[in-house]
Write a structure and sequence with these properties.
Blueprint lengths: L28 E3 L7 E5 L5 E8 L9 E4 L8 H6 L4 E10 L4 E8 H5 L16 E6 L8 E5 L16 H8 L11
Parallel strand pairs: 1-6
Antiparallel strand pairs: 2-5, 2-7, 3-4, 3-5, 5-6, 7-8
Bound molecules: zinc ion.
Length: 184
């Protein structure tokens, strides 16, 4: 009778692992913080997915603008040719939000990664389980976004499965994986 489990009463049993909603990985919202309203979540991808993009905004009204992928090379990308605009890196990182519970992607600029080096495109640290806060540093809707990481990661067994962000971005941009989008 030395089995220690026999002495554990039900209230002392270890908690059941959490249950998470199924990931509909083609339909994952991309969140950007509004001024004065930071967003906090838990990272569930190893690191950001960095993609070369263009900002397409035919009307000039900010809400009509869209991020679109840079496809191929500067000489062949239709948006490089038609917009006369250099592509820029945008990062997406998979995040678990608690209230309401859902999977999202946070969008990162190179500037936001430079204020938080583990998010930079060439960083290799596994970030799953770390908390992340993104916030605007100014009052304007387009002021720079800053990111901060927490130091005490959530244990991997308490996290949802890793998020695959590619299907959601492919759907959002209506491109195929073979269309030559540039990632790192
Ligand atoms: Zn381009």
């Amino acid at each position: 009778m030395n089995n220690p489990f026999l002495r554990i009463r039900p209230t002392e049993m270890p908690p059941e692992p959490p249950r998470f909603p199924k990931v509909e990985d083609r339909w994952i919202a991309i969140l950007n913080p509004k001024p004065g309203r930071p967003i906090t979540g838990t990272i569930i991808t190893e690191r950001p997915l960095w993609v070369l993009t263009h900002w397409v905004n035919p009307t000039g009204i900010p809400k009509d603008g869209r991020t679109r992928p840079h496809l191929g090379t500067d000489d062949t990308c239709p948006l490089c040719l038609s917009l006369d605009q250099k592509p820029r890196w945008v990062g997406y990182i998979g995040v678990w939000l608690v209230n309401p519970a859902r999977y999202v992607m946070f969008q990162l600029s190179l500037h936001s990664a430079q204020t938080c080096p583990p998010l930079e495109p060439d960083a290799t640290l596994d970030l799953r389980g770390r908390s992340i806060v993104i916030k605007r540093v100014g009052a304007a809707a387009n002021s720079p976004v800053m990111a901060q990481l927490g130091t005490d990661p959530t244990a991997l067994e308490l996290l949802p499965p890793e998020l695959n962000m590619r299907p959601a971005l492919l759907r959002l941009w209506d491109v195929r994986s073979s269309d030559g989008w540039v990632m790192r």
